[in-house]
Automatic annotation (TrEMBL):
The protein's name: glutathione transferase
Organism: Piaya cayana (Common squirrel cuckoo)
Keywords carried by this UniProt record: Transferase
Superkingdom of origin organism: Eukaryota
This enzyme's EC code(s): 2.5.1.18
Boundaries of every GST C-terminal domain copy: 85-139
Segments forming domain GST N-terminal: 3-83
A biological process from GO: glutathione metabolic process
MF annotations from Gene Ontology: glutathione transferase activity
InterPro entries, sorted: Glutathione-S-Trfase_C-like, Glutathione-S-Trfase_C_sf, Glutathione_S-Trfase, Glutathione_S-Trfase_N, GST_alpha, GST_superfamily, Thioredoxin-like_sf
Length: 139
């Protein structure tokens, strides 16, 4: 193995959080580099590491991977957490897709006005409890 994976993201949760969770579930130690200045981000851009000009980025096994879903799929497969066959992988992909949909309601929450936060909070709670949590509880 080529050392610990290195995670590049802003000092917060966001789209890096499920990557952290999956690495933790796999028992894999990792390093993090928090992008705290514009210069750090620009350096990654200029170096060609950010194919789509965005983070998260994970250095793992000699690769600089971007796109959360691709990173999660790679880590899950590498550590045998991606099902035993095609059917299980398809089910896992469905649950991951649902989680991504739910996260879409949450990701921009910190950037909303106080009034809009109240509306969005109610929407998040309603969608989570009526649409998403019942699916997770069932499986």
């Amino acid at each position: 193995m080529a050392g610990k994976p290195k995670l590049y993201y802003f000092n917060g949760r966001g789209k890096m959080e499920p990557i952290r969770w999956l690495l933790a579930a796999a028992g894999v130690e990792f390093e993090e580099e928090f992008l705290e200045t514009r210069e750090q981000y620009e350096k990654l851009l200029q170096g060609g590491s950010l194919l789509f000009q965005q983070v998260p980025m994970v250095e793992i096994d000699g690769m600089k991977m971007v796109q959360t879903r691709a990173i999660l799929s790679y880590i899950a497969a590498k550590y045998n957490l991606y099902g035993k066959d095609l059917k299980e992988r398809a089910l896992i992909d469905m649950y991951v897709g649902g989680t991504e949909d739910l996260m879409g309601f949450i990701l921009f929450f910190p950037f909303l006005s106080a009034e809009d936060k109240e509306k969005q909070r109610a929407t998040i709670i309603q969608k989570a409890t009526s649409r998403y949590f019942p699916v997770y509880e069932k499986v």
